[in-house]
Write a structure and sequence with these properties.
The chain is mostly helical. The protein has helices spanning 10-28, 36-59, 63-84, 96-116, 122-143, 147-177. The mean pLDDT is 96.
């Protein structure tokens, strides 16, 4: 009988989320314009790769991972659609206040997902807590039309994305070396 151990898909999902989140929030912080770099990452790594990671979590029987990665992968795909569809003549541009409501709903979802991390690694808790704060700031910033709140959200997003990358690499390197290389606060 061969090796039946399944690979951990979480690092793939966390990297897709983390890198895409950093790119978008470099824009939100005011460093770069919203361009094809962010949109392409949102479709292929933030979107499709996270959905694949979620489907692989299903295979492992991980409901949390399935829900998180397929949902956030779908978030990236819908966000890109919200931004691109008007440019293609398929829809009107998003109403900023309604975009705030959209982001607020993602914040509520993320808060509930944060509660699901409380039995897991401390770094994963930080990823979801900082993401909850990010969605709250982006929702408020869009609803009240405050560029300064969106800039602050951008900095939170950069930190959130970096924490996801760190968590992903901790999972990869710790497994690869069979010991803690990057501590992620795992409960044993």
């Amino acid at each position: 009988m061969g090796n039946t151990k399944l690979a951990n898909p979480a690092p793939l999902g966390l990297m897709g989320f983390g890198m895409t989140t950093i790119l978008l929030n470099l824009h939100n912080s005011g460093f770069f314009a919203l361009d094809s770099v962010i949109l392409a990452m949102g479709i292929f790594y933030g979107g499709i790769a996270q959905i694949f990671a979620g489907l692989l979590e299903y295979k492992k029987g991980n409901t949390f991972g399935l829900t998180a990665f397929t949902s956030y992968g779908s978030f990236w795909l819908t966000l890109v659609a919200i931004l691109v569809m008007p440019k293609m003549g398929l829809a009107d541009a998003a109403n900023g206040h309604f975009l705030g409501v959209y982001l607020g709903l993602w914040g509520v979802f993320t808060l509930f997902m944060f509660f699901g991390t409380l039995q897991g690694a401390r770094m994963l808790q930080f990823v979801f807590l900082s993401l909850t704060v990010l969605f709250a700031l982006l929702a408020v910033g869009n609803i009240v039309e405050s560029e300064s709140i969106i800039h602050i959200a951008g900095w939170v997003g950069i930190i959130c994305g970096a924490s996801a990358i760190y968590t992903a690499m901790g999972e990869v390197l710790n497994e690869q070396y069979g010991r803690t290389v990057l501590p992620i606060g795992e409960k044993h």
